[in-house]
Write a structure and sequence with these properties.
It is built from 6 helices and 14 strands. By secondary structure, the chain is of the alpha+beta class. It has one domain (about 1-165): PK beta-barrel domain-like (M1 Pyruvate Kinase, Domain 3, Beta Barrel). Strands 1-14-10-11-12-8-9-2-5 form a 9-stranded mixed β-sheet, with no helix packed on it. Strands 7-6-13 form a 3-stranded antiparallel β-sheet, with no helix packed on it. The longest helix is centred in the C-terminal third of the chain and has 16 residues, at about 200-215.
Length: about 230
């Protein structure tokens, strides 16, 4: 069981570029309806990389904020729970405590862990701290996305309770370490791709990497993209 805080928000411009973001969340003041694509009333600016059925709800572990504040002291006053755009925060879980495919109950809803978050360049601009998104990706301080397997009502003060453990599946921490390894064992990548409940888009990327590694056993493996860079830098 894990106690949680809930956050939702609309779309606002970033302070420097003016580009839209849904990162600015506010604590929920009452019960929220949770549908297949997220909390009713919550918005995402770029639906290509946020939101949708397999990125419906984002949880960010509260304990990561201390690590970010230590590395980026200039941003420490702003690094409070909810400020990275998460819908759910908890001090009791991190990537080592959940497995790909786990199903948890929150209020009357049921959620399934399906993929890590890929941090975005907008984090750097939000906190005026170059390199924060890359640091989050490199140190795997990403949190994760949930798929909503049963819509329901969620209220502040509700707790996350594990309903169905994905026994034998990778923890999220293990999954990210495998995915980001320079040349991971093909059997491990194949096991990861076959994880029950894994997000389809991530599964497809893993399968493509397995195929590339099998065809190019002597070549240097291209590293997977772990965070979204600013478009003009691509």
């Amino acid at each position: 069981m894990a106690h949680v805080s809930l956050f939702i928000g609309g779309i606002r411009p970033l302070p420097e570029s003016g580009r839209p973001t849904g990162m600015y969340k506010q604590p929920a003041g009452g019960p929220l309806e949770l549908g297949r694509e997220g909390f009713i009333g919550d918005e995402q600016a770029d639906r290509r990389v946020h939101g949708g059925p397999e990125k419906a709800v984002h949880l960010y572990p509260a304990r990561h904020y201390a690590k970010l504040a230590e590395r980026f002291p200039e941003a420490a006053p702003q690094l409070v729970i909810g400020s990275l755009g998460e819908n759910i925060s908890t001090a009791e879980l991190d990537e080592n405590d959940v497995r790909i495919g786990d199903i948890w109950r929150l209020g009357s809803a049921e959620l399934q862990v399906c993929q890590p978050r890929n941090p975005c360049w907008k984090i750097d601009e939000r906190f005026a701290s170059d390199g924060m998104a890359a640091f989050i990706a490199e140190h795997r301080l990403t949190g994760w996305y949930w798929r909503v397997v049963k819509p329901g009502l969620v209220a502040p003060g509700d707790t996350l309770e594990l309903l169905q453990a994905a026994e034998g599946s990778f923890t999220l921490a293990e999954a990210m370490q495998c995915w980001q390894a320079h040349r991971p064992t093909l059997a491990d990548l194949e096991k990861l791709a076959a994880s029950p409940g894994i997000a389809k888009n991530w599964q497809q990327k893993i399968v493509s990497r397995v195929e590339w590694l099998r065809k190019n056993p002597e070549k240097t493996s291209p590293m997977p993209v772990a965070f979204h860079v600013k478009p003009e830098n691509q």
